[in-house]
Amino acid sequence: MKMRKSRSLFETLFLMLLFTTLVHGQWQTQDSGVTVNLRDVCFVDGLHGWAVGDSATIIATTDGGETWHMQESPIKEISLQKVIFLSKYVGYVIGDNQDQASSPKGFILATKNGGVTWEARKADIKFLLKGLSFISTDTGWVVGQAQDPRRNGILLHTIDGGQTWQTQLETGKNELLVAVHFVNAQEGWMIGGDFFDNFSFTDVFSQTQKMSVLR
Q: Domains of the chain, with CATH numbers?
């Protein structure tokens, strides 16, 4: 009888805890303070986060999103696509001038002080940059795509924190790259294709295998 009571009490407490978690886990709207389209967000803990978007917009929070403040991009009038931070201090942003399809350019920004200041690490890429991944403060990748008539993709790699970038892969026509993620220096994934429905995998950078996405 005592065991049944204990089990019943445990189940009741568990359900109460689950209900409390669900109730307090509801999403709430937070005021970003900007009116442009925001395209990506990154948090390194429960307090420190950044969001990026159109018109070279970078906003940051130190209180979990209750308040946001603007950070200044060194390059204006571009669309910032992705943001990643490895700590409260070291972060990267990629963007492009997607509204100027006749002469596409990609841009890579970096900060070492949490976004107090940003600097351009590379600003002469003739591709629209769409995805980035870093496994350390030094080692990272970005992917992008060229506009007509080439419509191909590119994978760039850095081992010095974005100071220099090397082309690791340039795809054929109609093979656009839109996202990349690496878990270590040898293993990573990319998403791309003419209709964004192909999946690519590499284990030693020497070979890229394509396969259809499972639906």
A: 36-212 (2.130.10.10)
